[in-house]
Amino acid sequence: MFAVTVCSHHFSVTGYDRGGKDILVQFAMRYAEYMYIRRWNGDVDKQLTRIFASSTRDRMEMRFHIKMLDEFKEYIVRSGYDVSAIKLTTVPMYDPVQVAYSPSPTFVARDYQVPIIQFLVAPGKIKLLTLQTGKGKTATTLMALAEMGVRAVVVIRAQYVERWMTDLSGPNSVLRLSPHELMVVRGQKDLKALIALAKADALHAKVIVITGKTMYSFYDHYETFNRDTSYYGCHPAEFYPLLKAGVRIIDEVHQDFHFNFTQDLYTHVLKTISLSATMETDKPLVSKLYRLMFPQDSRAKTVGYDKYIVVKAMFYGLSQDTLRKNRIKYVRRGMGSYSHVDFEDSVLDTKATTKRYMEMIESVVDVQYMAIRKPGQKMLIFAAKVEMCVEIANYLQKRYRELKVCKFTGGDDYNDLLSSDISVSTLGKTGTAVDIPGLLVVLSTTAVDSAESNIQAMGRLRNLNGEPTTNPVFLYFVCTDIPQQLRYHQRKIDKFKDKALSHQVIELGMKL
After folding, report:
1. Pick from 344, 396, 404, 403: nearest CA to 365
2. Residue 334's pLDDT is what?
3. pTM of the entire structure?
4. Cα(357)–Cα(363) distance, rounded to whole angstroms?
5. Residues 150 and 270: beta-carbon distance below 8 Å
6. How far is CA 326 from the centre of its chain?
7. Cβ distance 219 to 262 under 8 Å?
8. What Cα–Cα distance (Å) separates residue 43 from each residue in 38, 333, 475?
9. How far are the Cα atoms of 130, 205, 263, 273 from residue 121, in angstroms, in the given order?
């Protein structure tokens, strides 16, 4: 028998025998993702990377997305079981706590935001908002929350907490929450305290912000220790009902997508709202899951894409000496795939190559930023390694002493990023969900092929409405002697064609 418990966003299966477990594992493998690794001898290995389903370690409880339920029933019947072997129990929806918000009167919905707010507020347990960066995804969602008047849980990466605080609390924020109306949960200790407050009916916060790693630990403990709920004091699937939350919000849902998918496998709540500037991916399985998780009727209708960014590919090459001595490594040993981390390691390996690379960056900063910047306009540079970020920031600070140049990686102050003229960071740290006022130029020295990463990196640029004659510029390096980088460039042309005002090629005439 398959005992199926149906919740708002998932269903769990228990009560099966060994044969039933094998069937469930086979069903889960339909949503398995693999990595194909080409070895140096030409062989290709297929390695399982992750499965978009969940189970306890003993495999006696498995969890799947609610949108897979019909497929699951059909699969069980096709596997030789009678439909009567599936025993469904539906968990009723609870009444969320009602709260009153006092949004700032300075945040008035723009014309295109009004129907989006209405859509988010309207009935429907799954909502997706994909809105171009700079068009107010967060503000729109919070204005919708104010209309709904329910407690909200926001699950985000730790690096985004500070930015969300500026929209949630303080006199200039959207919701203007006071300290006792807002709770931030970081780590197991905080989560256990939150659960204890809710069980004691002593929870008064209107909005609860929880870091993604904290929630991951919650789910991981339950699975690793085979359904143990004593440590946290709550079953993960009973978390939102216990908090009496009316809505769960996830920002940048495309990031850490496997984890965000797993969140649904433990979520039972009235409504979820997921935010992203883009839901484009090059991965077939992830694309399929985007469509499954967010069907068309769950997606807010948004306005067309505003083209205001000028894109420029900055071409350079490798010197004959560098090519002859094979100094630049960019293929990950044992895997055969391009690695920009290995590329940067090679650049940093010798002082001469490092110097030429820094001089090339300086030449781009001179022509593409310094020559056109006005006071208050800023530049953001992406590199792959923290060590490279340090090298670039230190070099540029010595060259432009009149400007403030900062490195922004793990542990650095967010305010330094906002106040610096030139910032150097990684795509993982600053490539998503960071808004730098006055950002004029973005330079990506990191060669990446991911559609999400490229679009998000370009999306750090906002329309400079106060400068109608100035277009923000997105630059990226292309080494013409590296085939992978040339292929990535060709794909960028296609990826950016509907999003860029123009796409140019600039020959730097420089070699490493």
Report:
1. 396
2. 55
3. 0.83
4. 10
5. yes
6. 36
7. yes
8. 6, 14, 36
9. 16, 21, 22, 10
Amino acid identity, residue 349? Answer: D
Q: What's the confidence (pLDDT) of residue 4?
A: 98
Residue written as tokens 């009444």?
95
CA 262 to chain centre: 14
**Which burial class, exposed, middle or buried, applies to 179 when counting CB atoms under 10 A from its CB (0-12, 13-18, 19+)?**
exposed
| H or E stretch covering 239 | helix 239-243
The amino acid that residue 4 corresponds to is V
Helix (H) or strand (E) holding 386: helix 386-399
Q: How far apart are CA 138 and CA 433, in angstroms?
A: 10
User: CA-CA distance, 196 to 213, in Å (whole number)?
Assistant: 20
Token readout for 249 is 């919000």
* N-term to C-term CA, the chain: 66
Residue 406's contacts (CB-CB under 8 Å, 6 or more residues apart) are: 393, 412, 416, 417, 420, 422, 423, 424
Supply 491's token pair: 């794909």
Q: What is the pLDDT of residue 470?
A: 82
Please give the pLDDT value at position 39.
66
CB atoms within 10 A of CB 11: 21
**Residue ranges for the chain with pLDDT beneath 70:** 38-42, 333-336, 466-469
Q: Which one, of 75, 78, 67, 140, lies nearest residue 107 by Cα?
A: 140
Distance between CA atoms of 89 and 91, rounded to whole angstroms?
A: 6
